[in-house]
Amino acid sequence: MAKIKAIRGMNDILPDQTPVWQYVESTVRKVLGQYGYQEIRMPIVEQTELFKRSIGEVTDIVEKEMYTFEDRNGDSLTLRPEGTAGCVRAAEEHGLLFNQTRRLWYTGPMFRHERPQKGRYRQFHQIGVECFGMAGPDIDAELLILTARLWSALGLTGHARLEINSIGTSESRKVYREALVAYLQQYKDRLDEDSQRRLETNPLRILDSKDPATREVLVNAPVLDDYLDEESRNHFSQLKALLDAAGVAYTVNPALVRGLDYYGKTVFEWITDSLGAQGTICAGGRYDGLVQQLGGKPTDAVGFAMGIERLILLLETLELVPDYVNNQADIYVTAMGDIATAPALALAEDLRTAMPSAVVVGHCGGGSFKSQMKKADRSGARYAVILGENEIRNQTAGLKPLRDDQPQREVPQAELAAELAKLV
RNA sequence: GUGGACGUAGCUCAGCUGGUAGAGCUCAGGAUUGUGACUCCUGCGGUCGAGGGUUCGAACCCCUUCGUCCACCCCA
């Protein structure tokens, strides 16, 4: 019988991995909380139509990467490939957007049927942040300042660079797209294969082609900046001024376009060079038209998503995960022989009551005393508490430091908690 | 979807021109009646990813398939 294995590209996150996940999630939670952002939780499955209408019919995501299936009643449902669409749907559906401003965030798994590689999986996890009802560049700036603070909290400052661009309103972008396509059509045979295809699918993507011949053609191509409407241009220059004032470094990348149709005006990416091909750890932009497009009232909006796997990969590559994150135990309580089992359980409970934040691991499962000490060592605990016949007779416990050369002491059981509280 | 590399013990990997499976780590026990980390000894542990073919004989050669990794595409 062949063993059943996990689905390709969908990974188990094992016990030695969960501490760093919790570390990242709690850090993000803390920083977002500082800015007054509220958490929202949406279903993982939505009507397929939601993603088609928001992400765009001709994007790769919708065309070939969605996990779409029929519900038992015949409805077409899809495992969410990203969070913005569902967030907008939920917020609109429950009246969270009308005549008010909102700062929301969420986290959870997303699903895209792509070929897995480093930093890219079929089930992956994002932390998404979405802001509604704020038209000005101040909220764009707040989001970027917030991410900069998050990098600082994680020790990542200097390891990711910020690229920004303005792709204008959908109207001005449409005019530009036509001009670009018209220009490139003249040199179609000089473009690389991928870019020829992109002429039909996603012309703006050709701008960051790596092919030398294509790059040569692009030298004289129309520039998006020349086609920007006045409002987008002002918005962008104000944003740059706000970032300058806040001390957030950035570079303007005119070739930066986003893959999802709903973006307009501000777009940005935080990129690292330490992860190979999948170097974008955080990306987003403004999507003022989406709420209306999904049937709501016109509502300005801006947001971004971070890839948690990529963030963790980066932290581990740079060895930035603090040691305390992986420490499993503070105190390990041994029990020598059957006679010590009940007293050891009771003593460990006393310790937990007296030191609520300490991790007190009690030995279970028998084994020689030697092996118990070995496990105490492996647990990472700073102190071993030793309970055997002698200690029980004397109402004491052995207190043995495991991380320095201090000698072992005999402490009355009644005083042990107070004694350890001083040390841990 | 395309290209390349790779699948051998729980983990990291050796295994020569084809001759019948190895090491280190981990784990258990011992040297040390009740004391971890260092050392030494012993032991547990494998359908060599799966299926087929060639051969007296395949972990090794051939085909198919599944999976992993990296890159392209695309994206977090």
Short summary:
With 424 residues, the protein is α+β, with helices and mostly antiparallel strands.
Describe this structure in words.
This is Histidine--tRNA ligase. InterPro entries: aa-tRNA-synth_II (IPR006195), aa-tRNA-synth_II/BPL/LPL (IPR045864), Anticodon-bd (IPR004154), Anticodon-bd_dom_sf (IPR036621), His-tRNA-ligase (IPR015807), HisRS-like_core (IPR041715), HisRS/HisZ (IPR004516), HisRS_anticodon (IPR033656). The chain is an alpha+beta fold and 424 residues long. The chain has two domains: 18-169 and 229-317, BirA Bifunctional Protein, domain 2, CATH 3.30.930; 327-418, Rossmann fold (3-Layer(aba) Sandwich). 40% of the residues lie in helices and 20% in strands. It is built from 16 helices and 16 strands. It has helices at 18-34, 48-55, 60-65, 84-93, 137-154, 170-186, 193-201, 212-218, 224-227, 230-246, 290-293, 308-317, 341-354, 369-378, 389-394, 413-423; strands spanning 38-39, 45-47, 67-70, 76-79, 102-111, 123-132, 161-166, 251-252, 264-271, 280-286, 301-307, 331-335, 360-362, 383-387, 396-401, 409-412. An eight-stranded mixed sheet has the order 1-5-6-11-10-9-7-8. It has a five-stranded mixed sheet with strand order 13-12-14-15-16, sandwiched between helices. The longest helix is centred in the middle third of the chain and has 18 residues, at 137-154. The two termini are 50 Å apart. The structure holds one RNA strand of 76 nucleotides.
